[in-house]
Every structure is written in C-alpha cells, then in structure tokens.
Predict the 3D structure of the following.
Amino acid sequence: MRFLVTGFEPFGGETRNVSWEAVRALPAALFGAEIVTARLPVEYDGVMPVLLSLMEAEDPDAVLCVGLAANRDCLTPERRAVNRMASKIADNAGVFRDGQPILPGGPESLFSDLPVEKMAEAMSAAGIPARVSGSAGTFVCNRVMYGLLSAIAAGGRPRLGGFLHVPRETAVPFPQICRGLEIGLQVIAEALS
Ligand code: PCA
C-alpha cells in the first residue's frame, strides 16, 4: 500500500506553512503503508499539474492533501469541495479569483470518499481537537481537493482521496498536529485493507 501525502508551501507573506512541516515529519512507512510526501505550490493554476504528475509517477492507493486553515482551532477532515475559486488574497503567482468555477459546467460540490467522521473521531479519542468540516473553502486547498476528487471520479486510481485542514500551531501544538495526521492516515489505511 502506498500513500501520497502533500503539504503546501507558505503563502500570504508567511515563511512557514505548518501543513508542509507536519507532512515532511512523517516517517517513510506507517501502518504497513509506504508514505510518499510532496510540497505543493499555492497557485490556482499551478497546483493540479504538480499533483497529477505526482499521482502519475507514484501510483498511490490513497492521496491525502493537507493545508493550513489559519482561522480554525482544530484539525478538520474535509467532507466537500465546491466548484468555485475566490479569495481576498492573491495566490503565490499573484492571481486573484472572485467566484469563477473551477470546472465550468462541472458538479457544484464533490464529496470526499475518505472516512472523514471516523478520522475526526479517532483524532478526538486521542485527545487531539478535531471535527469534520463541511467545506474546504474557496482558495487553493479547495481547488486541489476539487481536482483530486474529479481525477478519482474519472479513473480507478487512487482508490481514496481527500483533504485535511490543520490549524495554526498557536491553536494546536505541532506534535499534536503531527499525531493527528498520523491517526488520520491510520484510519485511511484501515479503510483500504
Ligand atoms: N491553505 C490555503 C492554501 C494553502 C494552505 O495551506 C487554503 O486553505 O486554501
């Protein structure tokens, strides 16, 4: 079993993105799965080509993309991606979007096939603040989640995929964010075996 787990580069003028720091801290193997990690660009147009070529090269059984939700106070497995792009800040390529669809004519919402409730419950049971989120927002994290779920719907691989938002380290300490990510991956591994 092979997992592709991604984090994001810093954005919004910051120098660190905890999503990538937590992903890069993962061991090379966990729960019988090989863990391949990668850092994605915070670019509406640039993020999917990078993710798709990683999926092509690595042929993972599951893909979990991880990003920072700066205004949340817990870990949030995402239930749904929406067919919209909008944000107050520009992406790292200087691009603004103010409500354009990701895929013109495409489904308004795409739902993750990850066991998001179980992931949040297992994290909470380990004392890590977590809840399921109803939407990944409308910035680049939602863009990549929508693209990932479209790719899964179109082909047979990967078998499972979705998104996990993590909060700032001021809301949840870094070791707990890392532990929560590992627990989320464990639940995904159980769902695949
Ligand atoms: N968070 C942003 C994009 C990159 C990241 O880590 C988001 O929530 O869309």
User: Anything to note?
Assistant: DSSP finds five helices and ten strands in the chain. The domain at 2-192 is CATH 3.40.630.20 (Aminopeptidase).
